[in-house]
């Protein structure tokens, strides 16, 4: 049984169809690349405005050296607080004024802290409340003609309750 010659000639050339599909996919890929490349100018660095570098201002701190103070206790026990503070201030003038009046500030802090209860100071809410009380110390001026103080925050650098 011999095969007909018509069977050989009548078969579809699948390899030709594969080449056509590959050519179409290459052409469409090149077209997409060209269209996407149009969105990005060749000299993007030159045409875009230069963005300014964001530089954060250097913070200014006024530091109170650590000290120890007796604090109240609900059980009438002897309790101590070892505390160090830093004040984040808005300008150099405020930092200089705090440094000049450091003895007055330390005295006010000692009086304020000696009236606190150790049990409250061991909780985070007690520490946050103490920040508000410390900031209130600056409501009373250190001297009669005093410029307005720019105190942004109270930071604990040391804090031990025994």
| CATH homologous superfamily (4th level) name of the largest domain | Band 7 domain
List how many beta strands DSSP finds: 3
Principal-axes geometry comes out as elongated
Query: In terms of per-residue confidence, which ranges show pLDDT below 50 for 5 or more consecutive residues?
Result: none
Annotated CATH topology of the largest domain:
Tetrahydropterin Synthase, Chain A
* N-C termini distance: 108 Å
Helix and strand composition category: alpha+beta
User: How many separate domains?
Assistant: 2
- Rg, Cα atoms, Å: 38 Å
Name the CATH architecture of the largest domain: 2-Layer Sandwich
Strand content: 15-25%
Q: Which strand order does the major sheet show? A: 1-2-3
H/E series, N to C?
Answer: HHHEEHHHHE
CATH class of the largest domain: Alpha Beta
How many helical elements? 7
Report the helical percentage.
Answer: 40-55%
Summarize the helices and strands and which ones pair or pack.
Elements: H1 5-10, H2 14-39, H3 44-47, E1 60-71, E2 79-89, H4 92-100, H5 102-114, H6 118-121, H7 124-136, E3 151-161
Antiparallel strand pairs: 1-2, 2-3
Task: Name some characteristics of this structure.
single chain; 162 residues; alpha+beta; Tetrahydropterin Synthase, Chain A; three-stranded antiparallel beta sheet; 7 helices
Description:
The protein is α+β, with helices and mostly antiparallel strands and about 160 residues long. The protein folds into two domains: about 35 residues; about 100 residues, 2-Layer Sandwich (Tetrahydropterin Synthase, Chain A), CATH 3.30.479.30. About 45% of the residues lie in helices and about 20% in strands. It contains seven helices and three strands; from the N terminus they run αααββααααβ. Strands 1-2-3 form a three-stranded antiparallel β-sheet. The model has no long low-confidence stretch (mean pLDDT about 85).
């Amino acid at each position: 049984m011999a095969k007909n010659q018509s069977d050989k000639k009548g078969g579809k050339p699948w390899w030709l169809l594969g080449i056509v599909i590959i050519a179409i996919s290459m052409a469409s890929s090149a077209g997409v690349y060209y269209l996407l490349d149009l969105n990005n100018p060749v000299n993007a660095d030159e045409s875009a405005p230069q963005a300014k570098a964001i530089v954060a201002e250097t913070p200014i701190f006024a530091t109170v050296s650590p000290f120890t103070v007796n604090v109240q206790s609900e059980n009438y026990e002897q309790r101590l607080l070892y505390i160090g503070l830093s004040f984040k201030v808005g300008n150099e003038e405020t930092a200089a004024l705090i440094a000049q009046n450091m003895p007055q500030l330390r005295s006010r802090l000692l009086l304020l802290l000696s009236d606190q209860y150790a049990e409250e100071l061991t909780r985070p809410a007690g520490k946050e409340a103490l920040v508000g009380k410390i900031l209130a110390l600056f409501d009373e001026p250190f001297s009669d003609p005093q410029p307005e103080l720019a105190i942004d925050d109270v930071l604990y650098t040391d804090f031990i309750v025994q």
